[in-house]
Every structure is written in structure tokens, then in C-alpha cells.
Amino acid sequence: MRFRHPDGSTVHLAYCTNVHPAETLDGVLAQLRDHCEPVRRRLGRDRLGIGLWLAKDAARALVTDPAALRGLRCELERRGLEVVTLNGFPYEGFGSEEVKYRVYTPDWADPERLEHTAALARVLAGLLPDDVTEGSISTLPLAWRTAYDDGRAETARTALRTLAERLDALEDLTGRSIRVALEPEPGCVVETTRDAIAPLTAVGHDRIGICVDTCHLATSFEEPATALDDLAQAGVPVIKSQLSAALHAEQPHLPEVREALAAFGEPRFLHQTRTATSAGLRGTDDLDEALAGDALPDAGPWRSHFHVPLHAAPAAPLTSTLPVLTSVLTRLVGGPHPLTRHLEVETYTWQALPPELRPRGRAQLADGIAAELTLARDLLTDLGLKELP
What is the pTM of this model? Predict the structure, then answer.
């Protein structure tokens, strides 16, 4: 979906396909048929943006076979879909029964992360619509915190500088400008937007910036205006933003609140949980850990890294951090000029919701994704952006 900002520039809105498991190119093509095109039809649109997730095998198939890449581009056009952004964070196995810590490997100290991201950039340059010259890729925020030391930090910085050089060369070759965005996430080396400033300043290249995920930002209790002002002051570009909402519990000391939270504990993904205290942010790596005894102080609200559907906050006594998303979006695109032009709804936890909230089949999933995009569209038009055909 495209929108005209009052300054005349185009802002793109997509939804991320990591909600649909696929490890191979055939799986990606099936996604377009079974999920993405039905969402477009529900929205009554001739064209729908998707934030494509390509696992390592699918990416390698596309980057090594020009005919396969042309075939994917043709299939996108045939189904009324377009791609200006990729989710390059998960490497493989995102649809597995247990993902947890595995999603953080390979990290940016591993050469495979550089090669995979460079391959994604080449693929994206070939998929951009004819009238679009800028693409974006979100990626792992360096590494999970426990696997990092000074040596690995320097290796990661070197890899990002090498990537920037390759992206320069790619633009010289194709005329397409691809930029890569570290996506801060709780528990990682770069947990917050402020954590991103030092490493990105050290890399020192405007092709490497930040992806603001509004679920992650809310989980870490970041204040949106402060976070975005700090990035602007440091000269760190917001390359894309993922529109998402976290799980919020206002009174986690109450037994009924803990019971409601426990329903969201599940074995597939980590649900890092945080609370803000007078001594600073406290947290656990997973929701189940937070609920076990006194692992986390419960005098103040808890927020958990569980991407809940934008249009459907959990039932009381829980809620979502949708107001944080709204605040971030206002700052990003509600001013005289957009701070980013690539927006992506990323709710990949539909099938991880408590059983009674999960969609029953493809049709209900498509309905839910379309409802999320409708909410995001309404937020953008309320900020003065005009939806384009």
C-alpha cells in the first residue's frame, strides 16, 4: 500500500510474511498464492506491499538463478503484490516448533550473516518495482547479549562496513539504493534505540541505520519522543519501522493478571518480559521465567515481547501497547517530512496466541492480517497521508 505524504513523498506500508512458514522458494511462491493475494483481495486493493521474509535456502536459490528471480518478480506482479522491504532477521527455521534463542544465529560476528544479508540486498534490487529506487532490509541487532565480547564486536563492525561497501557497489551496478537496518530487540546487544547509536556511529555509513520496532521499543519502556530525538541528534537514520504492539499487564502482582499472562506462555518464541523500576529496567528472557516466583519485581507494569494483533488487544485485565505505536508513527510520518518511508506490520505470533484466539484456517488468518493493515491505514490517513491507488 502506498501513501502520499503532505510533502509529496511516497510512504510504503506492507505486512511481513514471516507469519507464514516457508524455507524454500517454492514455499514463498505458495505464500503469495495462499496468503498474500487473499489479503490484498480482502482490502479491495489492486496493489499490496509485502515485507518478504526469505530464509537462507530461498535467498540462495534466487541469488544464484536469475531465471528464478525473474520468475518471482513476475509472480508478484501477477498477484498484485510489490516488495520494497525484506525482513532479514530470521535466517532459517522461523516456522519451527521451537525457535527461541536460535533466531539470533548466525550473528554479525559470523561471516554467514554478512553473506546472507548481501544476498538479500541483491535479490531486493531485482524485486523493486520499476518506479521505486530505494529498498530496505531489517536485520539482527548484532547478537544475543551472552555471545558477545570485544573481539566479536569488532568483527561485527567490520562486517557492517564491508556490507556498506557492497551496497555502494550494488547501487553503482543497478541504480537501486538498498539500506540495512539493525532492529533493536530485548535481550540483544542492541536492546534499545540508544544502544544502537554507538555501534552505528562507529560503522559511520548512512546505508546502515535502524529499524524501529514499536513492540520492542515498548517492551523496553522507551519513551518514543526521546528515543527518536536521540537518533536524530546522533545522525542515525530510521530506515524502516515495524508496526507492532506488545503485551501489557498493568498490575502483575494480582493473581488474575498472572493467570491471564500465563495463557500467553508458549514454546515457540522467546517473550522477553520487562518492568521499569527506580533502579532501572529489569527483565527476564521469557514470560514463563517472569511468572515463576519472584524473578521479576511486580510493583509496576510488565510488558512482554509478544506481538499481539494491532486491531485486537487482549481481553482485560491485559492490554497492548498500541498507544506507543501511535505515538511513534506520529513522530515518524506526522511531521513536515517523513523520518522513514518504509512501514511494515509485523505480527508473526498469530499461531502462538492462546488457542481460543488463534485463527482457524487460512481465511481467518487473512481476515486478521487485513484488519491489522486497515488499522494501520487509518492511522496514516488520520495523520494527513493520502492513500494511493
Answer: 0.97
